[in-house]
Amino acid sequence: MAEAHQAVAFQFTVTPEGIDLRLSHEALKQVYLSGLRSWKKKLARLRNSFITGVYPASPSSWLFVVIAIMGTMYARVDPSMGMIGKIKEHLPVSGYLSHQGQSIVSALLFSTALWFALIMTMRYILKQLLSYHGWMYEQHGKMSATTKLWLTLVKIFSGRKPMLYSYQASLPRLPVPKIKDTMQRYLESVKPLMNDEEYKRMTGLAKDFEVKLAPKLQWYLKLKSWWASNYVSDWWEEYIYLRGRDPIMVNSNYYAMSRVPGSIIPLCSSQWERTFNTTRIPGEETDTIQHFSDSKHIVVYHKGRFYKVWVYHSGRLLNPKELEIQFQHILDDKSPPEPGEEKLAALTAGDRATWAKARKSYFRSGKNLQSLDLVERAAFFVTLDDCEQGLRTEDPVHSLDAYAKSLLHGKCYDRWFDKSFSLVVFENGKVGLNAEHSWADAPIIGHMWESMLATDCFQLGYNDEGHCKGQADATLPLPQRIQWEVSNELQEVIHSSLEVAQAIAEDVDFHTFPFKDFGKGLIKKCKTSPDAFIQIALQLAHYRDKGKFCLTYEASMTRLFREGRTETVRSCTVESSSFVKAMMDPSKTNEDRLKLFRAAAEKHQLLYRNAMTGAGIDRHLFCLYVVSKYLGVDSPFLKEVLSEPWRLSTSQTPIQQVELFDLVNHPEYVSCGGGFGPVADDGYGVSYIIVGENLINFHLSCKFSSHETDSHRFGKHIQQSLLDILSLFKLDKI
């Protein structure tokens, strides 16, 4: 086989004349190119680290400072006020340098120290500037003089060409809210969910906690906020994601679909680092995240078989035509899977402790250890699915629902759920991905997904026959079949994990639909936030669906702060519930309802801004609870708060790179969003994406096992609620 021959670096035979050593020039060439690429990447990382390390200054600014200092010295002016002379007196190499040489070295040292001092000053000023969030609370379309001045100063101190990680050291730390403020906001958030007696009891618990235990717990959080980069994120990653022992398929992982037929404010970029070459490692008590600095291959799954596919060759990435050849080779391979191989990945879909024990028992050595290492070190996982998915015009409802379910869980054994993401390519060319949640949040993978869709559509493209453009290198090594040794005992474990996963998958009731009656274009004419409009519509739809209000989770980001991840917006408010009750009360006029709607929308916007600026409720309460567990103290208040189920869990998928797409003329090239499983057994999961001016895509999930929920019924309520709210504004009369 050609690939086997190329894998041999040299050959030798024993002859009467001695050892005949025959070097393989192609193999040596590949060794050289591989090492060259590795060193180039190391130097590039070193260069980038230096550039981002001195930001907001630039390396060339050091030369400017040196020249300026030298120039003043030759003009017989001492800008250092004697510091250069002091440095000159204490130079350890003064005996080896001339008087002029000592002066130059001292000036260089002073210039460098001055340069670093200026960098730290600029960085401190920028950090203070970025701690100002007043701009978020201003009326849309209007900007105060304070914000205009702030914006000007941010531009001045932000440098000219920031890189991905340039702002990291300048981002402020996430502040710890005051206990009093969190208690007040929490009690306000649960008021529409409780009767008077329940609310009185909860108020008593909150006040008792605020006075007795909270100050002690808060002290530890303050200490952590001074010491750590972020007082929430590491605990959130560990206790919310990695310590969970339930299957991550459906319960944690989420999906993104393919397309349907710039601010200057810096955000934390720390999550980007783990997009590729990252996997979740199972443990019996807690999982860990393993990130590798580099990877040159991907792992592809097709019809029960695993393949290693090189994506680098001769020091470069393979072009699309070359990748097409690699995948075609896999598709043409008719060899059957080895016994137990086909459903091996079900281990990643079942209980985490079961997978951890199996990994320790059956993947410690030999082929299994090597093969598992190939999967976990891969840049990402690819599934060439053997079924067709996507929108079918003859059956749009069921086809989109099946598309979503396939991306969320597939067959429960044809995605590697531990990888940072698994790219899924269906037989008819539709694509999507399944992403593991612990390493990053959805906007990170969404940003990458947008870039992929735009690049595929507008830059790479295909020829008239549907093949990738370009030429292929005939010397490329072909994909290598990954070998496993699956014993009968291991097959039993795989079967057990598969049964657990299939029970979860079969219980998922999913409904995906496009709402085409209107989009943000008409919503903006209502002079309200599109997100607030949709969230209030969800409250109305849920009340119509279940006849009651529930604790509602809307995800927002805290990436305005260093290492920030998410915060919760509690969308069920006193104001939104008052509006919903008015919509259900035939005695109320539309004028009354419209007034209540505006109050609810303003409150939602306030809560969203508070969450983004570090004044949320739930992450603070979560961290207080973690501290209480470390101290071994019980809090009836925190225990009750942290056990409250989120029966309506929602998230908006933002379109982050609008410059990549022509949303007016070609909205079909934008992703139709993604979704996730329900958080509560008797609740709903709702994801939505606002596409252009006239389209909103919804992804709804719940469980068949709950008699209270029905995704299609809820979808109809959402559509009707959106229309009913819009009718209040009488836009046809404007």
From TrEMBL:
Limits of the Choline/carnitine acyltransferase domain: 174-258, 264-720
GO MF: carnitine O-palmitoyltransferase activity
Pfam families, A to Z: Carn_acyltransf (PF00755), CPT_N (PF16484)
Protein name listed in UniProt: carnitine O-palmitoyltransferase
EC number: 2.3.1.21
Residue ranges constituting the Carnitine O-palmitoyltransferase N-terminal domain according to the UniProt record: 1-47
UniProt membrane topology term: Multi-pass membrane protein
Keywords from the UniProt entry: Acyltransferase, Fatty acid metabolism, Lipid metabolism, Membrane, Mitochondrion, Transferase, Transmembrane, Transmembrane helix, Transport
InterPro entries from the UniProt entry: Carn_acyl_trans, Carn_acyl_trans_N, CAT-like_dom_sf, Cho/carn_acyl_trans, Cho/carn_acyl_trans_2, CPT_N
Any one Gene Ontology cellular component term annotated for this protein: mitochondrial outer membrane
Cellular location(s): Mitochondrion outer membrane
Family indicated by similarity: Belongs to the carnitine/choline acetyltransferase family.
Reactions catalysed according to its record: 4,8-dimethylnonanoyl-CoA + (R)-carnitine = O-4,8-dimethylnonanoyl-(R)-carnitine + CoA; (R)-carnitine + hexadecanoyl-CoA = O-hexadecanoyl-(R)-carnitine + CoA
Record pathway: Lipid metabolism; fatty acid beta-oxidation
Active site: H437
Entry's Gene Ontology BP terms: carnitine metabolic process; fatty acid beta-oxidation
TM regions (residue ranges): 50-75, 104-126
